[in-house]
Every structure is written in C-alpha cells, then in structure tokens.
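We modelled the chain as a single entity of 468 amino acids. Its sequence is:
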Amino acid sequence: MKTVEISDMTLRLAEGGSALSFKERVEIARTLDRLGTDQIELPALKDDKGDVLRNKTMASVVTSARLAATTGLTEESVEAAWESVKSARQPVLHVMLPASSVQMEYVCHRKAPAMLELARALVTKARYFTEQVEFSVLDATRAEEAFLRQLLAAVLEAGAAAVTLCDSAGIMTPDECGAFLRGLTAAVPGLEKVRLGVELSDGLKMAAACAAAAVDAGASVVKTTITPMGVSCTQDVAAYLSARGEGKGLRWNLRTTELTRAAGQMQWMMQTQRSGGSPFDSGVDDTGATVCLSAGDSIEEMVKVVRHLGYDLTEEDNAKVYESFQRIAAKKHFVSARELDAIVATAAMQVPSVYRIISYVITCGNTTAAMANLMLEKDGERQQGVCAGDGPIDAAFLAIEQIIGHHYELADYQIQTVTEGREAMGSALVKLRSNGKLYSGNGISTDVIGASIRAYISALNKIVYEES
C-alpha cells in the first residue's frame, strides 16, 4: 500500500500579518502533532534572535511530526534555519524558490541560469546539515517546461530528499494536474525516488480534486492547512482518503476521527485572532512569551522578558530569579517563557505564609457537580469554605475566594508533570492579578488538585504580604 502524507502549512501561511500569540502557535503545533500530521511547516526567519528561539520552542513541543524550517535566499539563512530546529526530533530544511520567469525576476531578481546556481547552492548547503532537505518549486505550473526539468534535476543532484510542485496560480483542473505530474516524473530521472508533494492553491475551488488526481499520478505528500487559507484544506483531503483511500490501496497517518473537532477549534482561534481577541487570552501580555533565553543572556535581557510577562519585581527578586535561571539554563540549550514563569513563581518574593492549608476534600463525578470543602488557617484562626464549580479546580478556587472574601483575576493557570510513573509529581503555576500587578505561585504535589490549591495560596500570600 502507498502512504499519503499530510504536510501542514498553517503556521507558515498564517505568519504574514498574523496576530497569533505564542500560546496559540504552540497550541496549533501540538494539535497538529497529536492529529498525526506528518510534517509541520514553519515560516522563514525574520527577526534573527526572536524567530530562532521561537522555532527552538516549537522543536521542543513537536514530538512525532517532522518540523520543517523554511530557509531564505542565502546560505547564511540556511544555517540560521538549521540552528533553530536542529533540536527537533525530525528536523527538515525547506528551500523554496520560484520557477516562473515573472516570479524569478520579481522575487529573486535573477534570470534562469542564476536561479539554477542559487537552487543548487542552497540545497547543497542544507544537505551539509541534514539528509532531510525539501525543495519547493513555487509557481511550477507556469514555468517553462525545459527550465523546470533542469531545476528539478539540479536539486535532485544536490541531494534534495523531497520535492514539492506548487500550483501557485490555482488554475489547474484535476486532469491537467495529473498529467503535469506524470509528465515530469517520466522526464526527470530520480523524481520517482524522492517524496513528491503538491501544494495547490484553491483559485478554482478544485484544490482537493487536484490533490486526489496528484496522488493518483504518483504524489505521496499533499500540503494542506487545517483551516481554510486558499489552499487544499486538510478536512477535504481527509474526506477523500476516508471515502476512497482503502479502495485505491492508500493509507495515511492522520487521525481523521479527531480532525473535525480539532479543525473547529483551530478555525475558531484564527477567526478570533482576526477579530482582535484570542481564545487563549488570559489577560497577560504575551509578547514576552515569544522569546526564550539562553545561559549567555544577561540579567538585563532576562529582566526585560520578565517585565514582558507582566511582573514588576524588585532588584533583589530579579537577582534571585536570575540566579535560579542560570542554574537551569546551564543544563539546557534555552529556557522558555513558560519555564521562566515557573522560576519567578518559585524564586521571587518569598513571603511568610499568611494563609496556610489545613485540609481539603474534593468530590466530583459524571453525574454530580464538583464540590470543594477547604479549611485554611490565618493568624491561628481556621476558616472553612464550601463551593460547587464547573470542575474540581474551579470549585477549589471558588472555595478559597469564599474564605478570603475577595475575587482576584486568574491571569494564568498551568499544570504539568514533574516526574513519571503512577506516583508522578504534578507542578502547578497560578498567576493572580491584583491592582494591575501580577503575582505568581507554584505548588507541587502527587495530586494535581492539591498542587493547584498550593499554587493559588502561594500567590495569595504574596498579594496579602505586599498589600497589607
């Protein structure tokens, strides 16, 4: 059987003028990876440090799919792209160049002979770093046939492991698309031995039909987006594979049963960000989250990121955070903004415990509302709160608010495992906002609910200490 791979371009195409936050980009990448997408494509680097570190963060969260970094038009850009994704489980360098006369001169300011040399040089440079090199021929369907064959032969000779043919104009019919691929496969030796893909614009609303014809003609990779973006849509290609794939001897890795729900979430996200909001908006300025730090960064650079995250720390707390940051950074290639959040919660503004947890009982089930019964101690006096909530965490936080008689804005809440196994430790991070200032607390327990309660109380104690 033949395997049809899905290469998702959502993050690459959404970059232009996109207001997607770091959290949204990460969520998209995680969702695509969880769906069984074979390859996730990232945009070309623009801001050297910021974009490189953003790609490094993506490399840390994508665990199954290939992660393709788009290169620029110079050999230096190839090396920079590699540095940004080399820590990924399956890194790919993606070279994209136009083949039509108009785009070659407009985009690259080169004639055909110079374009051949540029393509050969970029693929050769990429091949120095990795065997996983992809070459995309932009506007391939409007290129002169003789030149297109020369270009493909040149990049195959230079070591490209995958070739993608792009119908940038989106004017092909399915029959023409199939004939186009068959003709090139027959005319260019070696093309049938690499991963042959197609990127199809949906100008005539035939992208999905052209993708089906391309697969029949020998293509093994279809480039899609999980939300409508003017190219082949993942849901349309998945519908074809589900309906006709088995009969045609095709198999695929995409988890089609989960696709509809995930696509709906992603489409909602994209529409929300275009309207100025965000389904992941927690009230925290996310600009700092797009930057990660390395061990070589100074305390001034770290403080700048900490301020972007919303914290206004004293010099003493900044020094404590930087000391903890250096210990962690020495063991890792970089420290993400999320990890810096946890460092701030643990190291900064350690204060006496005004509120102390005595006990908590949480009950929940599929037929009853979640209930939390908490006992806290303040100044030797025990106070009890009992509340129902949408879930155990919500119920617990509401019970705390009942005890303290005040509602604080929950700016962010994160939970992750620290150790593995049946008795794994969970680490919770809670950020509360009071009078415009951000306070974070960290809690660790084998019980994630307990960790969350401890994190909330930790942040609460900081608020009470500073505002008393």
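As a brief sanity check on the tokenised model: DSSP finds 16 helices and 15 strands in the chain. The CA atoms of residues 355 and 457 lie 7 Å apart.
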